Give the backbone structure.
Amino acid sequence: MRGAVALIALSQLSTYVASVAPATPYLMVVAALAGFALAWGRVRTLALRARPHMWLGAAGLLAYLIALAPVLGAGRPSFSSYMTLADSAVHMLGADYLLRHGQDYAHLDLRNSYGQFVHNYYSYSYPSGADTLLGGSAFLLGLPLIWAFQPFCAFMLATAVGPAWWIARRVGLERALAALAALTAVVPALVYAYALFGSIKELTALSMILTLGCLAVAHRSWLARGPARALPFVLVLAAGVSALGIAFGAWALVPVLVLAVVLVGRVRAGSLSGRRPLALIGAGALVLLIAAWPTWTHTSAAVTIATDIANTGNGGNLRAPLRASQVLGVWLGGSYKLAPTGANLALTDALIAITLLAAVFGAVHLLRRRAWALAGWLALMLLAWLVVTRLVTTWATAKTLMLTSPAVLLLAWTGVAGLKGLPGRAGTVRRSWPIAQVAAALLAPAIAGGVLVSDAMQYHSSDLAPTARYEELASVNSRFAGRGPALFTDFDEYAMYELRDLDVGGPDFAYPPPALAASAGGYGQPVALDRASPGALRAYPLIVTRRDPAASRPPAGYELLWQGSYYQVWGRRPGAPAASVHVALSGSPARQCGRIAAVARGVVRDGERLVAAQAPALVRISLAHAAHPRRWGHQREGLVMSTPGRLSAGFALPTSGRWDVWIQGQIMPAVKLGVDGHQIASIAGQLDGNSLVPNTAPPVAVRLAAGVHRISVTRSGGFSLAPGDGGAAVLDAILLTPAGTDPRGQLREVAPADWPSLCGRSYQWIEVTRE
């Protein structure tokens, strides 16, 4: 932990100077090597005495594996709980930007989403301590940030095992039981939920909070021995402020108050002169100022951000406030946002009551043992939770619950320690009554089992980011780097990191290009290029679209440059003028003919032409008339495949040949796709950045004769250890197109007087352009 906090301070200072920022990873290596050299004797001693700490090492490793379990279970690079919250996209973007450019925001183009996101977050002192550490670590490991993100979050969570173990041993638990206590204290249900959706700031701060608690309890070993011995405490404070911002002050105040009481007591007792605390405070304040300098230089902005987060009425991904009982670490449901149901609810309530009872025993044990510093720290942690939750709104309250949960679990495990053995004279421990021993033997597995089963249920419901799609986006970035800005029509804010060299603008992002915001109609809504004025698109040499057979192609001034399994890249032809008129067409060919005639009559300038994009042949299968299990509900126009079952629907093809079958929806667990009783594909892990926009999986080719056929989509039953087996499973649409259909579409160009020749066919749009 000491190394991590020192590297956070170093990376914050190095990225503060733009010219030094790219050297940050190398400076981290130099600092690490220097640390090993200076502490070689201690490292050697620890290596020789590793056996007593084997349980600690095992607990830390298990915490790391549990936090990373969904990715490990999938067997591919990814990150978990995709679609839960897109804040991790901002951290990836920020970590990359800070390592490349430091805190230099002058050159950002605020007309596009990339520039707005970086500017609106990081130039206003958004906490970046965890981001700079992530960026430097990923660079040294040679990993893309998008795939290093989940391992980094898991590692930061695992570092909290050390201080949790120290506290568990302090209250009297044996090594094996202390390891179990430390493990469950750092992965209670709510903390695990935050680990799954990548709450990098809170996961990093959690280790700092527990470490500060340990240092406050162990004050006798350093507090009165000079300012130099206080350096670890101050550096942890600085790292916490850098990672969580000014809001970390609520948690920093807890150990500071404990130490203040100790210092006042010593001064009054005459064992410490009044000057020494002043020297200690002065030296500590100076180190804290330097180590967290980038945060302090924008204190007013940092306070504003903390205040906005605390007071925001936006609950993020929370529809309702979390329950206070979730602080006890047990939640037998697939989502921390929803209450357990049925038998799981009753069992959850029982386990919560057991954990609460153990916590009460723990408080009694600390008081009987006269462990005043530890009791004071835990009591103030609970007080901070109660006070903060009265002052902030839903989103910040949830984070407060999460950061308090490990302390509550440690208090419960203290109760187990108290039942196993009560304090005797001179610090000795005498055996407790047999009934207390039995109670301890029952409480320990109940607490540990409740936490671990809660985590397993969330593991089962986790959604994983689509690996192949993001690797394809990375290839697009490499192929077209520097040729932006690029308009991005898919809703996926992670694309800002993957397409970081294209200056991405997303009309449906939180920060859309102002000139094109209306083309999406709101945050997360589908982008319709037909709603954009032709002149506004001229600012974008590139347009990146998803492969969607039902979507309209870009205007005639763009040609297809590249196509992958998921995306198409369109480039504006050199010198291509913007259309003077662009009208979207829909309905029957007869209705479209009238619209075409109206556009043609509006042409008044010589040299202008009509260009129409012919709609592809499309067979849409009606889900409304398909046979499927009654238990499957609806999400907007889609079917929620919540249980095992089979959908079956008939369709007719006009011609024989090879056809592409397109599945649209959010599909995490594996589903089988079949035609006429024959399985043609298994589809899994096909998710988009937002449930409002149907995800389109790559097409599946199949040869079919003209006439009537039957298609099936089957979600299998049975228990599975695969991550995400209980994740999103929504089917929005099934489409078929002739295989090999030209993605460029067929553009028909005629003189305005020849507009009748366009009638009789279906088109996506019609434009008026110059020759």
